[in-house]
Records
---
Amino acid sequence: MRVLVVGNGGREHAIIQSLKKSKKIDALYAIAGNGGIAADAVTVDMDVKDVNKVAEWAVENKIDFAVVAPDDPLVLGAVNVLNEKGIPCFGPTKEAAIIEGSKIFSKNLMKKYGIPTASYETFSDMEKANAYLEKCDMPIVIKADGLALGKGVIIAENLDDAKAAVKGMMEDKMFGQSGANIVIEEFLTGPEVSVLSFTDGKTLVPMISSMDHKRALDDDKGLNTGGMGTVAPNPYYTESVAKECMEKIFIPTMNAMNAEGRTFKGCLYFGLMLTTKGPKVIEYNCRFGDPETQVVLPLLKTDLLEIMMAVANEKLSEIKVEFKKKSACCVIMASKGYPEKYEKGFEITFKTSRKNVFVAGAKLDGDKLLTNGGRVLGVTAVSGNLKGAIKKAYKKVSKINFANAYCRSDIGKRALKAYGEKI
Ligand code: AMP
Ligand code: GLY
């Protein structure tokens, strides 16, 4: 089969390395991919948001199956256009991708169907938002309705900061049109868990749980980033929590989307917070999480292409999805300065195998691989236990070099502590 993966980050590289294990694949393409992905797939330079052009390319190049990974093309309807042209896909239609594309949609969905989440109000008028804030307890959480590169969430500690956030989003348009409408929601506390799931609208199969590390600096300090590392499984996600999530959140969400006429087929991501009042949804994503995918897929035992095709054909119930009973740790090697200002264009050298080294931001210059983004590599290791996976991942990191490389030194520390262990 000729398979296309749409996207260009570490997540897509993890999907591609996993798909490559499938015997069914004869040719693997990536639009647009990156210089590192080029080692595992044929990369085609194209804007992933130009969904019509992507679909035309797929038809011309006789693609049998497409995987659309990032939020932007999904929300823009890449799967709709590809399906219209007769190409089966893994990924939701734009009608279903709205679960991530609009926070107001997802909050209203949860309210309507009784799915546990933070209490909230939505606003399209700044004065009304400010008047509401006067009555709120602090801290308070302010979210832009639309996509904002994962940055559209502000946690305000006091009323002044909260009003500044509302002004920034609604008047100053810090997230463009995404902030024209906002959600103001209750601040929750508790361990966070990411659960990715496969669903075809009839069956939902959760993948192994994971833990993201969003802040730039050790001990969860510094700015929010796209993610500085992940571990799987997540120690807080016990069997009883998993059962409760399945009953109160996962299945009700799948059913709610069906009831709304927006059947979700693809990877549905649940960002959860385990509060003292039970698990609550912090966010939905309509796609694989990044960098969660970099720890989840290396633990997958089942053929990924078979699962994805079963999802597209609504036959997920016929597949047994299995994960290795092991642990994984992914350490992001970033450019120093990320997520603010950083330099790029430095050569990356490897004194280790590139298996499970997922390239997020790099380009080729002849046969040299140069840094080309804030997050450069996701370096993953798998081991029998979490401690082993962490040690192996950092050992691998020590064998990869580029100028101005930066990584957190405590990925997995919090998870180990939850197991009562220390690094
Ligand atoms: P999101 O972009 O929705 O994943 O939000 C980014 C981060 O903000 C989450 O991972 C949480 O750490 C935090 N966050 C979002 N919503 C809330 C909330 N209601 N209460 C506390 N923290 C939150
Ligand atoms: N790691 C969170 C996300 O992919 O949005």
---
Amino acid sequence: MFIGEAPGADEDIQGEPFVGRAGQLLTNMIKAMGLRREDVYIANIIKCRPPGNRTPERDECETCSPFLFRQIEAIKPKVIVALGAVAAKTLLAMNSSMGELRGRWYDFRNTKLAVTYHPAFLLRDPRQKKETWKDLQMVMKELGLALPKQMVE
Ligand code: URA
């Protein structure tokens, strides 16, 4: 299960998470792991598009997260990948930087949780794709998926 931040304009129109440009990159990340989008569940912390695409406020994350927690309970994912700081900080209740949060496993209510960079951030800073690929390989190892393939652009 991948968990992002909030719907953007495309997601708001289509009513589906990660269907815009960041979603295309997420799809490629999923494919590079040897999976298809149908194999994974994708959700957001925030269920409505924040005005002007601003970063969600903490109280907005707290208001929406019970819905996400119900999704997690229903899906019972093998592992959770938190995409970006909003997802990671909300799920882990930690205020560390992305650099500190990523690269290791956490426990979220008895489910293993990994943190990696948000695809929208990777579109702005593609140099971080290499580090992201390391995080995804950690997840692949846990899931018993074959290593390695190259992450597609
Ligand atoms: N960014 C997100 O965090 N979620 C989406 O659904 C789309 C872009």
---
Amino acid sequence: MKKIELHWKIIIGLVLGVVIGLLLSQVPSGKSFTVNWIKPFGTIFVNLLKLIAIPLIMGSLIKGVSDLKDISKFKTMGIKTVVIYIGTTVVAIVIGLSLVNFFKPGEGISPETVLKLKETYLTNGSLQSKLTEAQFRRSQGPLQFIVDVVPSNIIQAMGDNKSMLQVIAFTLFLGVCLLLIDEKKAKPLKDFFDSLNEVILKMIDIIMLFAPYAVFSLLATVVVTSDDMDVLIALLKYASVVVIGLVLMIVFYCFCISVFVKKSPFWFLKNISPAQLLAFSTSSSAATLPVTMERVEEHLGVKKEVSSFVLPVGATINMDGTSLYQAIAAVFIMQVLWPEGLNFQNQLIIIVTALLASVGSAAVPGAGMVMLLIVLDSIGFPKDLLPIGLALIFAVDRPLDMLRTTVNVTGDATVAMLINKSEK
Ligand code: ASP
């Protein structure tokens, strides 16, 4: 019998998860059954992926840097990576702003709907914690994000998946210094990381065998715990605008792959699809990173020295889907609650702040929404309306998060392909 390919198995898991989730949400104790007996398998899987992220970054980045031999090559690659990341993010924001200004989804929202959303979500614990987190971010100085890149304790940084950039900074420093010392002295450490890298790649292979079941569990949980249909329908126009934008971003990536990399976009999408499906199911670029790296290196043929740098950095700072979403959500909220603030100047500010906000968003579920508050804040959005603004879009945040994370991961893979091509 022909072996079913991994992405098909994951898709089957995904569809079954949705169907079983829908069925279980109709039965009285379906929700608690799902949470107690199905959800844990998805959680274990996501934990396993997070577990190997840090050793994988360290192993593969050291290997990548030490294979480079020439440090100046690394500098040009670093600059190219950051420039292309900024470029794709600006494209995403411009697409988002154009769509939201063209379709004006906020204009169809009635005052009754606003009231209903406000009543339903304003007291929601998760919404409140997002507000507190945004408040904390706001209180930090403008250069804090640079300070945050340099860890004061590497063991502590390695113990927190949110400190991925710190681990990257330390590993790069270590890798570069390995090149600078005597080769004989550097060899044992290089061999150690080499071997670590191989073992982690094997671990990914084994963990991925479990992916279809995990995706089933994650999707069933999302469906069972999602909000009622009425609210979702009220926000359908807004959600559709975001979805159209995200689809256009995928088209843009396909264009880049075909024009600049001279490869078939279908081949690209087919090979990256397991990572996309995991991004969709976990809503976390960080959790998906090991799989993205494996797909890009082993299936898309990107050299390790490129992927080991471009992808971990991308997972933390390049979020095209998130920035597109932030631009649309900010303008949508303004259309509903603060139309007088909708001017050209504010839209220009949104371009800059959504760019910075997507860099600052952690690669975990729901992070984009926290940084959205910072975007709104920067254009002088009335502070008392901020919680209401969040309540307005809260109901559809999870499905949109799943989609924007898929775009974030695809964007990172596309840039890795572009850099790889340019390095040849
Ligand atoms: N969940 C997204 C990611 O991990 C970030 C966000 O937009 O919330 O890429």
---
Amino acid sequence: MPVLVMKFGGTSVANLDRIRRAAKRVGVEVAKGYDVIVIVSAMSGKTNELVGWVNETSPLYDAREYDAVVSSGENVTAGLMALTLQEMDIPARSWQGWQVPVQTTSAHASARIEDIPPANIEAKFAEGMRVAVVAGFQGVSPEGRITTLGRGGSDTTAVAFAAAFGAERCDIYTDVDGVYTTDPRISSKARKLDKIAFEEMLELASLGAKVLQTRSVELAMRYKVKLRVLSSFEEQSDEAGTLVCDEEEVMENRPVSGIAYSRDEAKMTLISVADRPGIAAAIFGPLSEAGINVDMIIQNIAEDGRTDMTFSCPTEQVARAEKAMEDAKSSGAINYHNLLADTDVAKVSAVGIGMRSQSGVAATMFKTLSDEGINIKVIATSEIKISVLIDRKYMELAVQALHDAFELEKAA
Ligand code: ADP
Ligand code: ASP
Ligand code: MG
């Protein structure tokens, strides 16, 4: 029988009523003749609560135990979803990541899926089971420890299962009815897209649009998974939501197709480091070893052989970054006067494949921000995006102003 993957995010399984509603959606697809793999997130808010408990217990925690704790939210919803389906007379059972097994690397808290041998679940489908409910976000390392895939990781679980089982489609059910030109919670003018190219979705996701985890888009692109984002709160047709697809299938042709933001950025500045060959390696080597996701980097103009080095990283990694720098300083690898952490910043980005061929995007972006009196602290660009770091209090204003400036409320 053809296989369909259906993923339900946290708000879609937030309580027993919503789990029942999601189970009904699954029932519709089972009735059409699909064997369904359901991937569930933890109930909304649960993972945050678990992360909070870990941080309170141990600020520089052992990531293996972090994973043991934060993976547990999905175990609850997987079991409840299987029970709900059974109550509807649909043959179903739950699977935790290690039972499948979802084999991952040992990079705890941000593990990558290496393989999903389908044999165990396929054997159950062959026996007449119609729905495999799998706890998203989790797997097992070669050492046999529980791993998690990074926040939002259930999306990646879903796409990886769709690839492993050759699913006809991977439907991501969430609390919005598709991918928008920007977060519809920030701008009422945000417009739903019927289709978005993999490259643009990848960039939007990596710049903060959390509707899909970045890695899930990468996997869908690599394995040609038909990926769709749609609402779990509305009746759905086969055309509903947003299809993430190849660039050639997207009709819109404009320089910018979306605005993304990330609240969780910190700007870190090392004051007065020696400006010598090898200094960047001496700073960013230890940061990388500490697992810090450095994004933007600026080295300021040097004076008297000393310079300031600025980089951005996720706010939650500030303590680790500080520790890595202090350790590098005490070992003599680097020398600096002070490390300043500015956590009141946000990153706002304009993304569009059309930027490759149309100029003037940066100029429009900087003029728009300047007209709003917003100071740009750091700039980074690539072929299809421009990002700026600004004071967090202006983030929503910046998103709205840029959405207006690039006329994203209008269909191209
Ligand atoms: P889930 O719990 O279902 O995984 P998430 O909260 O992770 O849901 O992702 C859905 C949210 O992503 C939406 O509620 C919305 O606020 C946010 N979002 C950010 N950018 C976008 C965008 N461009 N289009 C749609 N949603 C977006
Ligand atoms: N529950 C996890 C999180 O909140 C994974 C997910 O929902 O995708 O990050
Ligand atoms: Mg999510």
